[in-house]
Design brief:
The complex is a heterodimer of chains A (486) and B (503).
Chain A: H1 5-10, H2 12-29, H3 36-56, E1 62-64, E2 69-71, H4 73-99, H5 105-122, H6 127-145, H7 152-183, H8 188-194, H9 204-224, H10 232-239, H11 242-249, H12 251-267, H13 272-295, H14 300-320, H15 324-351, H16 367-370, H17 372-386, H18 392-406, H19 410-436, H20 451-469, H21 472-481
Antiparallel strand pairs in A: 1-2
Helix pairs in contact in A: 2-3, 2-5, 3-4, 3-5, 4-5, 4-11, 4-12, 4-15, 4-21, 5-6, 5-12, 6-7, 7-9, 7-10, 8-12, 9-12, 9-13, 10-11, 10-14, 11-15, 12-15, 13-14, 13-19, 14-15, 14-18, 14-19, 15-17, 15-18, 15-20, 15-21, 17-19, 17-20, 18-19, 18-20
Chain B: H1 6-23, H2 29-52, E1 62-70, E2 75-81, H3 83-102, H4 111-130, H5 134-143, H6 145-155, H7 160-189, H8 194-199, H9 204-221, H10 230-237, H11 240-265, H12 267-272, H13 274-293, H14 298-327, H15 330-365, H16 376-379, H17 381-395, H18 401-416, H19 418-442, H20 450-453, H21 460-478, H22 481-499
Antiparallel strand pairs in B: 1-2
Classes of the chains: A mainly alpha (486), B mainly alpha (503).
């Protein structure tokens, strides 16, 4: 591996973000708690500038560090949304953190490092880079979950997350080592050409490769939270402070899509018939478990966790296609999910006041009477998650279903919609609680005076409707990234 | 031709108007009421040029608007209307004005949201009738469910949550299979245009699958027996306005969908399974008619009567198809479809009026039970007069709108088989039985109790609402020519298309 100074320039967005993180780390050391706003706005600025660096780059096709880093149209789309969603998360999280004495520099730094990890993950060109990016993200998020160290629930969640995450990383590494053993290379492009003409069972190498694929899929399933590897997800969503849940629950889904795409299509595209079936099985299991178990939840965060599992099922359905249309649909789905989920958790954060978490579904009783506007925003997020037209979530589900039918997976598509209808019940239940039930506490809601938060949340909610009607440009961008004519 | 994008106006004016009304705030109910009324009337006025400006001699799609919507999948914002659509659009704009007037005194809680929901719903329903792109149709078709879900859920009766969830999940369940069917069609035709889908050659097996996918969606919407069970619940629990819109317009969307999708895209399968639809329709007409007879709740009775009358619509549609395929008798087929359409419009007036009447009584007595009433004519003579008129229309008395459609459908079914006609004609007897018995128990007789004795007759606003419905019923009944003339050419185009086999 030869090092070329020019390579550093090619990875400019990541370089900039890393530099900015180091600078913020230093600056934050010298800030008094009252000046934390500086860290807050600097972090958001760092994310937005990084996003701008990616957006102004009109020729996104770069390979650097001997193929370990590759930046293409797909990476550009994924990174832009990872950065944008994380910036929104910072705006949403601020008031919540301040109320709970968690308004500390570490939150921002860990999130920023996590974001950097996600960026590397979606730009990974070889197995080591995948692992590096993944662990940078994962370690940051373990620490984030435990950031409220006095809370027993958080610590328990962090412990579970760490142990299961480490196990998943181990499985992933094990799979990688098998693939390395079979192909003799870590480079995903080289693996792709090596694994292209493999007939499983023909020789020992092919068997090794097949096992490697299995382990990789398991690792990916863990990171996505796909059933049956979903056990950590509800506990982590519920146990984490909501400000952390929103971070873990939004942007990482986009990055996880990037990882799955790089590993499965970028590296093991030739094994598609094999992993496709595994993903389909994971998708069905996730749809079933996510949607059915969510019905029984009374805690909104936990319900949203199970809802995530079901959405992962849909996403995997798109990935399982193994066609560019399927990948584009899955990417579109990941983006739509991240945007919708951040709005949903945003409303929870808005309603959470010091000493009151707004976590139980019953806390939303009669919200329409107490604050019609944010009840409406929540209505939009729930309807979008449920996939009711004309909202963003419908567009995403539609594209995935279309891709699935196109790839001849009609039965999977039908299974998916049947579970989607079952799932609709619990989203409607939240709407029912907000609109049809009388409020327990009839007082006007006192909302934080954080104008940036309220405007962004309103914008985020309305965007679900606008993007649900005008999703043409976004899907065109996704199609373009995968080289599809639009 | 008018250069204004009329269809877009009648779709988006109420939707944005509804948003405006909801901004009026919960505190300023009167502002919301007047604003909503102004918007509804404006929309109605805007929709009139659709009727006057339509060249009904050609029967083609007019007022076309076509803009690219989602390029990646070739979906267009394609609007257009023929005689069939225009009749239903006018029914929608007309009924919405009356619903908003009708809610003036009877809704006091969150008035702005209530009216806003109806305006948004109006826009979406018109969108359904005007969409010529299958995906656009689907988006409007499903989008309707959210406002209706909220209307039943917030302003409904005691079991509203159960009823609204049942309504939502039932209808969504049906239509999502239609979505899969549409995706399948798109992947073969590479277009969402209804006209392109209608031309697409499809094998018999494909048509059969698609037929059932569409049937799921539209049969639940109509609703046909045996998937009608959501309707009585939804009607009983919905507020008056919700029931009126549900019965007068939303049910029609099912019938409209059969014409635009099932008959146009999978005619061979429709022919193959026409016996099934005819059988289900006859069961709806006869069996559900008997069910209506034993109801104790007025709204439930009218709801079952709706199912029974909508059975007539599906009967008319599929009888015509079977006819034209078997005998080539285009006139009888056109008569059947015309009859189904007139029946839909008529049922829009009649059921809307009947539910409004129940609403008038409910506002005064807070009961829908038949046993709580009796002798209403003594205290509310004007009201009784209206009620009797609508009841006669519901029985299909000549001179009212109810007669025209039923007569045409029965005539058409006679051309197919006298037995089907005889079965269908039973509606005249059963319908008369349950409607007249209802009239007898509620309106006539001695004053049943003190509450009835204290009733006051309808006020001018209520008289205006009921009078407008009555005018609709009588005009269509006495002089249906403008309505049939509006639709004739479009219906014969539909019939011509039916003759062409696809596989």
């Amino acid at each position: 591996m030869n090092f070329n100074i020019h390579d550093i320039v090619l990875a400019l967005p990541e370089d900039f973000l890393l530099g900015a993180i180091c600078a913020i780390l230093l600056i934050d050391l010298f800030l008094k708690p009252a000046q934390r706003a500086i860290t807050h706005w600097l972090s958001i600025a760092a994310l937005l500038v990084t996003m701008a660096l990616i957006l102004v780059d009109t020729d996104p096709a770069k390979v650097a560090f001997s193929g370990a880093y590759l930046h293409d149209g797909i990476a550009a789309v994924l990174k832009v949304f990872v950065l944008g969603v994380t910036a929104a998360v910072f705006v949403y999280a601020r008031g919540y953190l301040r109320d709970r004495q968690l308004y500390i520099g570490e939150f921002y730094l860990l999130c920023l490092f996590g974001t950097l990890g996600m960026m590397l993950l979606v730009s990974a060109g070889n197995l080591v880079m995948v692992y590096l990016g993944l662990e940078l993200f994962a370690l940051s998020s373990y620490a984030l979950v435990a950031i409220n160290r006095d809370s027993g629930l958080s610590s328990e969640a962090a412990m579970k997350y760490f142990v299961l995450g480490a196990l998943a990383s181990g499985l992933l590494l094990y799979g990688m080592s098998m693939i390395y053993g079979a192909t003799g290379t870590l480079d995903l492009a080289a693996i792709h050409s090596g694994a292209h003409s493999v007939v499983v069972g023909a020789d020992l190498h092919s068997v090794l490769l097949a096992f490697g694929v299995v382990f990789l899929v398991v690792g990916i399933g863990f990171k996505f939270g796909a059933a049956p590897f979903h056990m950590w997800l509800p506990d982590v969503y519920q146990g984490s402070p909501t400000a952390v849940t929103i971070f873990i629950g939004s942007a990482p889904k986009i990055a996880a899509f990037g990882m799955a795409y790089r590993l499965l299509e970028g590296g093991l595209g030739g094994m598609q018939p094999h992993w496709s079936q595994m993903l389909a099985a994971l998708a069905v299991a996730s749809l079933a478990i996510g949607n059915i178990v969510a019905i029984a939840q009374t805690n909104l965060k936990r319900m949203l966790a199970y809802s995530t599992i079901s959405h992962v099922g849909f996403l995997l359905l798109g990935l399982a296609n193994g066609t560019p249309t399927g990948y584009a649909a899955a990417m579109f789905y990941a983006v739509s999910y991240a945007i919708t989920a951040s709005a949903a958790f945003g409303v929870i954060l808005l309603l959470a006041r010091s000493g009151f978490e707004a976590e139980e579904i019953d806390d939303f009783k009669g919200l329409n009477q107490r604050n019609p506007w944010y009840a409406f925003i929540m209505l939009l997020t729930m309807a979008s998650l449920a996939g009711i037209p004309p909202l963003f979530g419908f567009a995403a589900k539609f594209m995935v279903l279309k891709a699935a039918v196109d790839a001849g997976m009609l039965w999977l598509a039908i299974v998916a919609i049947v579970f989607a209808i079952i799932g609709m019940y619990y989203y409607l239940h939240v709407i029912k609680v907000m609109y049809f039930d009388a409020p327990v506490d009839k007082t006007e809601l006192t909302l934080p005076k954080d104008l940036a938060f309220r405007w962004l949340l309103s914008l985020n909610g309305v965007a679900l409707l606008v993007l649900g009607i005008f999703w043409g440009p976004l899907i065109a961008w996704c199609y373009h990234a995968f080289g599809l004519a639009s | 031709m008018n250069s204004l994008p009329l269809l877009s106006l009648v779709i988006w004016l109420p939707i944005f108007g509804g948003a405006l009304v909801s901004l009026a705030g919960t505190g300023r109910a009167n502002v919301a009421r007047w604003l909503a009324l102004a918007i509804a009337i404006l929309v109605f006025v805007v929709s009139i040029p659709l009727f006057t400006g339509y060249d009904s001699a050609s029967g083609t799609l007019q007022f076309l608007e076509n803009v690219q919507w989602i390029g990646a999948i070739n979906a267009n914002y394609h609007l257009g209307a023929d005689g069939i659509s225009i009749a239903l659009i006018l029914l929608t704009t007309f009924t919405t004005v009356l619903v908003i007037l009708g809610a003036w005194d009877s809704v006091h809680d969150k008035v702005n949201q209530y009216l806003a929901a109806f305006l948004v719903l109006e826009g979406l329903m018109i969108g359904v009738f005007a969409a010529m792109d299958a995906l656009l149709f689907y988006v409007f078709f499903e989008g309707m469910l959210i406002p209706m879900f909220i209307i039943i859920g917030i302003w409904g009766g005691p079991r509203r949550v159960y009823a609204t969830l049942k309504f939502f999940l039932y209808t969504f369940f049906g239509s999502i299979f239609m979505l899969i069917g549409l995706i399948y069609l798109y992947l073969h035709a590479h277009s969402w245009e209804l006209a392109d889908l209608a031309k697409l050659p499809l094998s018999a097996t494909e048509q059969a699958w698609l037929f059932f996918a569409f049937l799921f969606g539209f049969a639940i919407k109509v609703p046909m027996w045996p998937v009608h069970t959501w309707l009585p619940d939804a009607h009983v629990e919905a507020p008056t306005g919700g029931s009126v819109i549900l019965a007068a317009i939303m049910l029609k969307i099912g019938g409209y969908g059969f014409i635009r999708f099932s008959l146009a895209i999978v005619p061979d399968a429709c022919q193959e399974f026409a016996w099934l639809i005819v059988a289900l329709s006859l069961i709806a007409v006869i069996y559900v008619g008997f069910v209506a007879l034993v109801q104790e709740d007025m709204k439930k009775l009218i709801a079952y009567s709706s199912v029974s009358h909508m059975g007539f619509v599906t009967l008319g549609l599929f009888i015509s198809l079977a006819l034209v395929r078997a005998t080539g008798n285009k006139d009888a087929a056109a008569l059947g479809i015309s009859g189904a359409m007139v029946q839909m419009i008529s049922h829009g007036f009649v059921s809307g009026a009947m539910f409004s009447c129940v609403g008038v009584l409910y506002d005064r007595m807070h009961s829908r039970m038949i046993k709580d009433y009796g002798g209403v004519v003594n205290t509310m003579p004007w009201f009784a007069a209206f009620w009797v008129l609508f009841s006669m229309a519901n029985c299909g008395l000549p001179g009212t709108s109810g007669f025209v459609g039923e007569f045409m459908v029965i005539l058409a079914s006679f051309a197919m088989s006298p037995w089907v006609a005889a079965g269908a004609a039973l509606i005249l007897i059963i319908g008369a039985a349950y409607t007249l018995w209802l009239v007898k128990r509620v309106i006539f007789g001695a004053i049943a109790n003190d509450h009835v004795a204290k009733l006051t007759d309808i006020n001018p606003r209520e008289a205006l609402v009921l009078g407008a419905f009555a005018a609709g019923v009588l005009v269509v009944g006495v002089w249906p020519a403008p309505l049939t003339h509006l639709m004739d050419a479009s219906i014969s185009l539909v019939v011509d298309h039916l003759l062409a086999a696809k596989s």
